[in-house]
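Can't attach files on this board, so I'm pasting raw text. These are the components:
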Amino acid sequence: MTTVRRLGPSSQNTRSAVLDLVRSSGTVSRIELAEMSGLTPTSITRIVKSLIEDRLVVETGYGDATGGKRRSLLELNPDARYAVGVSLDDARLTYVVADLGGRVIGHHVSTGIGQTAPSAVVARIADELEALLAELAIPTADVVGVGVAGAGLDLGAGAERMSLTTDDWDSFAVQEALGSRMGLPVVRDNDAACAALGQFWAGRMSAGDDFATLYMSNGFGLGLVTGGAVARGASSNVGEIGHMVVEFEGRQCWCGSRGCLEMVAGPRAMVAEAMADPALRLELELSGDDGHLRHDFDAIARAAARGDERCAAVVTRSARYVAAAMLSVVNLLDLGRVYLAGPGFADAGDIYVREIEEQSSRLARTRSLHEVEVTLVDPGLDAAAVGAASLALQHVLTPHARAGRAEAVLPA
Amino acid sequence: MTTVRRLGPSSQNTRSAVLDLVRSSGTVSRIELAEMSGLTPTSITRIVKSLIEDRLVVETGYGDATGGKRRSLLELNPDARYAVGVSLDDARLTYVVADLGGRVIGHHVSTGIGQTAPSAVVARIADELEALLAELAIPTADVVGVGVAGAGLDLGAGAERMSLTTDDWDSFAVQEALGSRMGLPVVRDNDAACAALGQFWAGRMSAGDDFATLYMSNGFGLGLVTGGAVARGASSNVGEIGHMVVEFEGRQCWCGSRGCLEMVAGPRAMVAEAMADPALRLELELSGDDGHLRHDFDAIARAAARGDERCAAVVTRSARYVAAAMLSVVNLLDLGRVYLAGPGFADAGDIYVREIEEQSSRLARTRSLHEVEVTLVDPGLDAAAVGAASLALQHVLTPHARAGRAEAVLPA
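---
Top answer:
Structure tokens for the assembled complex are below.
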């Protein structure tokens, strides 16, 4: 258990760590950087010089005089580089372009993956990305990388199980395909982890606060930030809350287990429940076909948001299961903050917030010590894409903080 | 998100950090300590001098010559100081004395808390501890502190909810009472967190491995190590797995929720199930009285271990619920290692191991990527006490790594 993080005096990691100290400090002097990093003033001077030469850092004036000499202050140059985030979703693709400071400066939404073959989707992503960058007048050379957020597990090198509507994605290496097409490093992670990272990176919470981001698309995922970093686990597959057993010996799940959250409370279960009401089925034009899952689910969520009592009952039932699962997570991890993000919460997210708040304020084991704050992330549809851009930025700014799956694949 | 840990040049924390670097390195030179810590060689020389003067570190010979000069090597002096760990349990108190290296050199078991008033228990603990130290010929001045492991939540300053058989412990400040009686710093944490810390400290896993320790006494607790540290959460109450909802809208739990793991699979539920069989009730002399919970539970567990089919069925039913909860935790946190510890697993722990292994090998979402190793910690009854001693040691060696509840209360 080594307790002091060692920084080699001249590595790329050290440079990135110093750049990240500048970013997180706002404005900072060289002396302060030396104190914070444990590096010698000579090393700091050399590293800062190279960061200024690369336009990543700028001098921004002078701080208070201490001992006769005024300290020149440094700041991140947010416009020096950009990162792109793409969220792959069944119903829509969302693109964001962020500057080095994490601010979103460009945004585009297009048709989802649907039944299209992965290679065709990748070709379209590359075209749409190039068009977005051209529109923003950003040369590709100024883009540090592309982050991709998608559903599902990472079941080994290159093979991505995206849990989308087609099985083609199971064995498709989206990183390699997009990386070689774009000529840029591509990193990927699941949408829940991306959404959590995005909130952490954007500084929406104080450092040290643990929190969870529940992401709902066709299923559920949980992004966890503990101890100031996105939790990764043994194989970078943290967050499979969709297969939390909430009903022991309950309905058989496709995963082999029984009574999983996804099986009793996910979009498929909700559509099946609504389909059982012939009038509702007709009214909302539900197909019950897996290829139209998102269409069916959206129709139910929108009707619930409009106040249709039958649909509100379907959503509320799902939300009560989700709230029980989140109560378990809150109790297990002693969380004080929970975020909801993703297309599943776009229309009827308020119902989920209400049920999670109700159960956690009444039943959380630590309710006498602290609140559990439940927040619907706005805009929920962008959260994963913004987080994916953060993922690409993190590769430039803090490669030493990376772990697990989030490894860049450099283009061939 | 500051990424480099700052060490002030002369604080107590720095001294402890250097001491911990010596401990974790085995043998190490001053130059290596400077490189690892980022401190100047001058600072290291000064700190090492004070550690040698206090007998905490010894010089142990010379390493290879580099550039003409041979480096003298440093090592922890394990016999310089000792720490005590006490596990408070309904059925027995367990004491261990550990040296600075974490090795257990003394051990004592006595009667449990039962229905005795907290102040009387604390007086007895002090007497028994003094007797144990006298037997080992360890002067109190060489003891760095006492760690106390108990069940339950920390519901605020001084008030410890121990979840034992009497409510008296709810508002009893065990730390203060024992600290002022012993004249030693006392730290406390829940038994699950202690058991996890003990395994981590003893180096039973490689650094960076996340793992969970499920602790079973009258209820369940989960100690979590993620990212190389015991997870603390918002109020140092991580691990309330006993109130994970495993049966949505199931049996009403005393916590206000329904279908909690403890309610359907804890010792009370198991005793109630066995009591429903009149022959078994008579045979095992079950009382069903809450004051005899541990006696009743132990009788069932021992009979199950002996092969009594009725009792094996009761334990197996509990173990299947526990396995479903652990499967949820494994899926949520992508764990590759799970430990079982505590008196609840002393007699029939094998049945729990078998069910958890069966479910996780068949159903864990990451089963194609890695195993989930399930280990019964031996000796299960000592795990919390050993961990509590580690907690006290950690306060001396790595106060910078402390968090949350584990704060020392110094004697008045």
